[in-house]
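Late entry, written up from scratch paper. The run itself happened at the end of the previous shift, but nothing got recorded in the book at the time, so transcribing now.
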Amino acid sequence: MNIYTKKFQITFSDITENNELSDKGILRIMQEVAGMHSASLGYGLNDMPNTGFGWIILNWKLKIYSRPKWDTILTANTWSRKKTPLFAYRDIEIYDDKNNLVAISTSKWLLYDVNKQSIAKITPEIKEKFPDVDKSVFHDKFNEKLIEPENSNFAFEYTIQRRDIDTNHHVNNLNYLDFAYEALPDDVYHNMNFSNIEIMYKHEAKAGDVISVFIFENKDKEYTITIKDENRKNIHAIVKLSQ
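Output as recorded:
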């Protein structure tokens, strides 16, 4: 099977104040193993000047089963699950050093033409390089279109800083999780135990942009955080958190 495997060590920046692997730490490892898999096939970050292509993520769906502590060695497996002419779907699973399942995710990606600065169709060559594996970590349908609740409450505004920007020259996808968590009530923030995370990225944000963050809590203690532009019209991202 065309499954890529890589080991990772949980670093200090990957843990919460309670010495547990954080949601951002999990997503960091998943982002890394996805990038390393692409690089192993000649379509990584360092290959972009030659290939002219890069990958942009549109969605994450993540389920967490356990939270190992600092310095634990994790094993991450990833594979291409499905492709359409425009989108590529990737699944990831992470295990701890005792082979216990830590987390799973599925994700949706776009191929980007860095020279034309536009979306590109997935070429036959890339399809051949990334053969699909008939294995899915989720059995239920992947909801790719998160909706902003009508009665969300304004939480805060934030000006995007230079430190928030990645090699694509816009806000790194992991930072939207930081923005979302800053909107949570204090008691929830310090005792986070979300098992399910969904993220939809819609419009890029760049250095100097002002974002407006809104939060909605339903009766089941599920939180939907919407990150919009300064005029509160265009959505940058929606983050949904639940038990």
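The radius of gyration is 18 Å.
(Scratch paper discarded after transcription.)
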